[in-house]
Amino acid sequence: MTITTHHEFDPSLNNAVRGFLDRVAVADTPDNPPTATLEHDPRWLTVLRQGLGHRPTLLTSADPAGRITGVLPLARVRSPLFGSFLVSLPYLNRAGVLAPDANDRHDLIAAADELALDLGVDHLELRHDGHAPSHDAFTEVRKQKVVMLLDLPQAEWDRGDRSDEALSNLVMKAIPSKVRNLVRKGDKAKLSIAFHKAGDTALPRELNAFYDAFAITMRDVGTPVFPRKLFSAMLDAFPHEAELVTVTQGDQTIAGAILLHDPYRRVTQVPSACALRAFSHTSCNMWMYFHLLRRSMQRGSARFDFGRTTPGSGPHRFKKQWGAVERPTPWCIAAMKPNANASAARPDNPAYQRRIETWQKLPVWVTKIVGPPIVRGIP
Q1: Sheet of strand 140-142: strand arrangement
Q2: Other Cβ atoms closer than 10 A to 291
């Protein structure tokens, strides 16, 4: 077995890695956590380089014949505010070491630990879903957050009536009555939803409209906004898996999301979403998520991933009301320097409460300028 470090990702390497992902993909169930995920696709490394300015690296293990047997994607994140990290991967919830063989997993983690030392970062952070691998390099396993997953009635949809009305009825029956009432409230508000992908002539205009709403939402919650080019790079890199979603009332874009369809796990997830508070009376956020569930089933997903959250928080309550269930997301951390504190870079750190309150008072145009350089340094 050979470990190789890649800093450039040509089509040949990308195809070899994706072939490996195809070989190790399994069904995503509570008893059988996923192996291959869309997050392991090497195209993410180009997205992070173009969209956030990170320095990506891909570690691979290979058998004597040169066939890939394991992968570990990584990106270096540096900030004068938060320190430096080697992360697998920033922005994403799960992209940790992936190798069926325990020896490959051990050696890939050891190689990542050595790379973190060479780079002089404060922490190595590997993000996993379901189960965490064991390794002597890890000094902490963070389990404070969970991912929220909702099973979809995909099997019933596959073998039954394939009409739009039947699909809506299936999703309605799958969600609690209180949520159904809020979705109907959105219907009465005469909202419209559209899905856009790379190559659509309207995509640049719709992406601008989404980003304006996204920046307002992030300002209102006190979080630095991602750069627009991150979403553009994502849509370009994943023309079949990524979609931009916009919700409008009349000519106004009032909510939106980035939608990712994972072909390996048959799961759809939303890494970024927004909804304007000024239009909360329309229930646009609930209405949008109902249609995201519909879209997930249209794309063949058997499960919807609401994302990672802290139990008991507002986002956790929002996701739980849909009937989503928790699954652990252990993030394995290796402190590379004495007294290094991985929690210091977390946006939910109580020490940043005053800064959050100040951020919420800034003009949106200021946050669009100041936010991206800050958020690129948050792992």
Answers
A1: 2-6, 55-62, 68-79, 83-88, 123-127, 331-335, 140-142
A2: 20
Sheet containing 192-196, strands listed edge to edge, beginning at the edge strand earlier in sequence: 192-196, 242-249, 252-262, 267-275, 303-309, 146-151, 325-328
Integer Rg of the chain from CA: 21
CA distances from 86 to 128, 135, 334 (A): 15, 16, 10
**Backbone angle region of 120, left / alpha / beta, with phi > 0 → left and psi within -120 to 50 → alpha:** left
Amino acid at 70: G
- For the stretch 34-56, pLDDT in tens is 478 999 999 999 999 999 999 89
- What is the C-alpha to C-alpha distance for residues 111 and 10, in angstroms, rounded to an integer? 22
- Backbone φ, ψ for residue 163 (5° rounding): -75, 160
pLDDT in tens, 88-129: 999 998 899 999 888 999 999 999 999 999 999 999 999 998
What lies within 8 Å, CB to CB, of 99 at 6+ separation is: 61, 69, 70, 71, 105, 108
- Say yes or no to pLDDT of 340 above 60: no
Say which residue the tokens 């205009």 belong to: 205
- What predicted TM-score, i.e. pTM, was given to this entire model? 0.91
Q: What is the DSSP letter of 276?
A: -
Structure tokens at 127: 């993000």
DSSP string, 110-141: HHHHHHHHHHT-SEEEEE-SS-PPP-TT-SEE
Query: What pLDDT score does 322 carry?
Result: 94
Q: Answer whether residue 376 shows pLDDT above 70.
A: yes
